[in-house]
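Please, structure for the following, as tokens.
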Amino acid sequence: MRLFLTALCFAIIPLLSGGQAHATCTGTNLLSQMAPEDRSRLEQAAARHPFHQGNLWRATKGDQHVTLVGTYHLSDPRHDQVVAAITPYLDTATTLLVEAGPDEETALLAEVARDPTLFIMPDTTLPTLMDPEEWQTLSDAMSRRGIPGFMAAKFQPWYITVLLAVPPCMMADMQAQAKTGLDHLIMQEAKARGMPVQGLEAFDTVFTLFDGFSREDQISMLRASLAIEDQAEDYITTLADSYFAGESRLIWELMRDLSLRMPGYTPEQVDADLAKMEQALLVTRNMGWIPIIEQAAADGPVVAAFGALHLPGEYGIPYLLQQNGWALTPLTP
């Protein structure tokens, strides 16, 4: 969950950026530290899923064309190569599709200002829901991120889990990180070309992702994330390196492997938890995006850019398009 929520959090973290300046992140790639046989085992598990490698795909159906771009939401100098690779497709596209376009971002900010209970629990606090020692550990972790405990105490548990995915070294400049992530760089290119930018989903989707999770479920997620909070920099580094290696499905397999090592978790529980998370954060959204992508493609070439974890698997965007008669071709960044 940590690695997946790390990817999710950068869609909403600008709403609460701030705090003191922190040192540069210096995390370690967890995959690089694995024994070769363990790394090979994860790679074999990833390879069982369609479209398990690659961030760029070209989908073609008759005279319709869609360029699929799996993105990484944070700033990274390696984005320049990706932008250069997709520039020819942007030059001929009529529409850019993204998870959240400018209109959706504006509406999101307005909705949060109107209804703070989207992030705030109106009926209780985290210290009431957690053991005193647990809460103190969480309060300290949030203070390191520039968020005082009295504020964090009222946040929805799912949002605290998202925030814990951000290492303290990144909190001070989260707005800058998000605005120079690949999604926004591509939106800037579209704006320069006068190309319309359309969101793939409603602005309030982020608030409904966890509707199927009870408060007890959310507290369990929070505890699991808090247990490995001290490795936040390592998870960020691993996520970024895996993205630029085109190994998005490998991240999912690493998540499962790390979850199995956590005390008290059985393989059955891990599989059930990951299946529930995958359904809420990937499967349902991907299936909802397909009609929007196909409708836009009927009016001209489309570039669709979204988090890279939406690409692999039998419910990934490329596979779903393939099932609808589209031919998929990998592109080289």
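The longest helix spans residues 267-297. Residues 2-23+36-330 form one domain.
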